[in-house]
UniProtKB/TrEMBL annotation:
Pfam families reported for this sequence: HAD_2
InterPro entries noted in UniProt: HAD-like_hydrolase_sf, HAD-like_sf, HAD-SF_hydro_IA, HAD_2, HAD_sf, PGP-like_dom2
Gene Ontology MF annotations: phosphoglycolate phosphatase activity
PANTHER family linked to this entry: HYDROLASE-RELATED, PHOSPHOGLYCOLATE PHOSPHATASE
Record keywords, A-Z: Hydrolase
Biological processes, Gene Ontology terms: DNA repair
UniProt GO cellular component terms: cytosol
Listed name of the protein: HAD family hydrolase
Organism: Rhizobium vallis
Amino acid sequence: MKLALFDCDGTLVDSAGLIHETMRRTFEKFGKPEPPFEDTKAIIGLSLDIAIARMQGRPHVEQGDVDMTAHYKSLFSVVRQDLDYREPLFAGIREMIDAISGREDLLIGAVTGKSRRGLNLVMETHGFDQHFIVARTADDCPSKPHPAMVTECCDETGMNAAETIVIGDAIYDMQMAKAAGAKAIGVAWGYASVDELIANGADAIAYHPNDLLRHFS
């Protein structure tokens, strides 16, 4: 029996455009320079308040970051509707999830910097809610790369970290997996480079969702 824990943004769904537009409007609202798209991509995976602080060159969250976080959250669904963003699945993701969802030797979960509401929306939109039996979000645990998201999913499912595989596109996913004692698989279709993923602990790289299947056997 294995536990596969998927990151969401940049791994299952391509949400960079939606996140950046919401971030751009948030920075504009608070009179701050518009962040480059690459800066937004670099923080995807972190909890939102920490991400906003990092984008302004600060390692720790200040009150202004908390205020911007609240505004971002209030704006996110508006931007999603305004621009008809649907956080599309990356090519091959649906087929890969369909291939593993019926297996009795594999449990599927999510570990994400999204809010619980945001994750639920993605799961419902793409019909994945019935396949993912455990999840931890930014509402539940400290931000990645803290290992709590992984260890709590392991505890809930009765699995050991040694039998757990974390799949993600960010360096924070790799660091979180290693901190928890789990296997780390980086995906090449997300927002970090392959070199960055390897440098931060990736045990393997998947270049297409089908590549993941061999790691679940």
